[in-house]
């Protein structure tokens, strides 16, 4: 009975996670509708605060219920000492922060490349990569919000995965943003809502062949799964574009 009950619990958590992301997909759609198809800007606000990031920008549309931002398989907060562990969640912040405001928490992260980043912000060569809008062709291949250790990331096909599941991304060095999303939430998968507002599970190795930004090469050589850290990803299912 115990193994069966464990499977039922895991399935229930995955279903709740799916429903959370479906609700967040509705929030994304409503935000875009109210802003002529454009998404939030996703950069620091005028006072260096959180107003342009998704957790705050979409809050009027998901009702400010931060549990909707939380995968039920990953609820252990950094502030409670769980940073750098597989099923951890970011938050709760004890002060006004440049990314999130006081009291916000979650275990989903946004694909930063979907944002309507101001053209004066960041390297010019990155500007053509941003999707900016929801009404695009192929939105079913563009991840919008998905399981993550941090609130956002800008993955590239050359990114390496974390050395082990749950590794604190800042310990990796550089801009290895794919590691922020590469986390085993639901038996080898994590859930994601895409830019067409559909929700589905994504395999960990499948992350490297999603269309994160407009110039992203989905056919690039994948990481050497056997030799990344402890080789923890080698056993997971392979995916080919």
What does this structure look like?
The chain has 241 residues and is an alpha/beta fold. It has one domain. 17% of the residues lie in helices and 11% in strands. The model has no long low-confidence stretch (mean pLDDT 90).
Sum up the structure in keywords:
single chain, 241 residues, alpha/beta, two-stranded parallel sheet, globular
Structure summarized in a few sentences:
The protein is of the alpha/beta class. The protein is 17% helix and 11% strand.
Strand count: 7
Strand arrangement across the biggest beta sheet: 5-3-4-6-7
Low-confidence stretches: none
Estimate what percentage of residues fall within beta strands.
Answer: 5-15%
Fold blueprint:
Blueprint: H1 2-34, H2 54-57, H3 59-62, E1 76-77, E2 88-89, E3 108-111, E4 143-147, E5 152-153, E6 189-194, E7 199-203
